[in-house]
Amino acid sequence: MRTHMADPDLDAEGIAAGLHLSRRTLFRLFEGAGESVMARLRSLRLERARLMLRTQPGAQISAIALETGFSSAVQFYRAFRTVTGMTPSEYREAGVAGGPT
Questions:
Q1: Which of 4, 19, 65, 98 would be a feasible disulfide site paired with 76, CB 3.0-4.6 Å?
Q2: What angle do CA 1, 34, 77 make, to 5 degrees?
Q3: How far apart are CA 59 and CA 76, in angstroms?
Q4: In sequence order, which residues have a C-beta less than 8 Å from that of residue 6 and are 6 or more positions away?
Q5: pLDDT tens digits, residue range 13-45?
Q6: Which residues contact 39 (CB under 8 A, 6 or more apart)?
Q7: Domain containing residue 90
Q8: In CATH, what number is assigned to the domain containing residue 34?
Q9: Which keywords does this chain's UniProt record carry (predicted)?
């Protein structure tokens, strides 16, 4: 998943195919872990985005959105705000960019 998470078209079907698993088996594996496939993918993407915001302060947020697999900056902003409670810009401005995750 980490290898291909920047692909905005990556979905459960693609992940299952890449792992040579049926979609059903993939979902069962994730169900046992307590997180859905797509929720895990979103978590990985947001984790990478937070890292990029901390280590690349000059990078445009729209570029980070695309590089981390979000299909648009709007989709990225919504997901980021839902998880962190702030926008990517607010995250940077608050000084979180230099602190721990």
A1: 65
A2: 60
A3: 15
A4: 67, 68, 69
A5: 988 898 899 989 988 888 878 888 999 999 999
A6: none
A7: 12-98
A8: 1.10.10.60
A9: DNA-binding, Transcription, Transcription regulation
